Amino acid sequence: MSDGQLHIQIFSCGGTIDKVYFDATSDYSVGEPQIDAIFRETAVGFSYTIESLMRKDSLDMTDEDRELLRKRVVASPHSLFLITHGTDTMTETARYLIGIPHKTIVLTGSMKPSRFRITDAEFNIGCAVGALQSKPAGVYVAMNGRVFAGNSVRKNRERRQFEST
């Protein structure tokens, strides 16, 4: 932004972070982006805009979805991007976004829905916001209290953690 204020463009893609539980069917569905409620409740000291690009489990994401995300990042006048995303294919999307110049892009998500009483969503989002303010242009994944380069990270399903490759 021209006034020097920190501004973060958020693109929501869905994933567990936005899942809601439907008790009558004992099923989960991807709902509205939850990050706005998290930011409002914590009274963040920066401006942000949120655009919900899709509400998908990341296992259902396609290369067309990733291309849409890439185009929206490239077309945006902003330089800081937080992308909420499902964890199963987050690293694939991170690799798809590599090479966009002059933009800092951090993908994050959660292993448990943000609406759960015990969730990693807020912690991961906070880590991602810190990474956006401290990392140079590039693509990163912020999960489990760590920030990984987008081209050298994987999800270790057994340990339920992300790790460097």
Explain how this protein is built.
- The chain is an alpha/beta fold and 165 residues long.
- It has a single domain, classed as Rossmann fold (3-Layer(aba) Sandwich), CATH 3.40.50.
- The protein has four helices and ten strands, in the order βββαβαβαβαββββ.
CATH fold descriptor: Rossmann fold
**Uncertain runs with pLDDT below 50, 5 residues or more?**
none
Mean pLDDT: 89
CATH hierarchy, class: Alpha Beta
User: What is the domain tally?
Assistant: 1
Describe the structure concisely.
The chain has 165 residues and is α/β, with parallel strands linked by helices. It has four helices and ten strands; from the N terminus they run βββαβαβαβαββββ.
Question: Strands, helices and their partners?
Answer:
Blueprint: E1 7-14, E2 19-22, E3 27-30, H1 35-42, E4 47-56, H2 63-75, E5 80-84, H3 90-97, E6 104-108, H4 121-134, E7 138-143, E8 146-149, E9 153-156, E10 161-164
Parallel strand pairs: 1-4, 1-5, 5-6, 6-7
Antiparallel strand pairs: 2-3, 7-8, 9-10
List keywords for this structure.
alpha/beta, 6-stranded mixed sheet, Rossmann fold, single chain
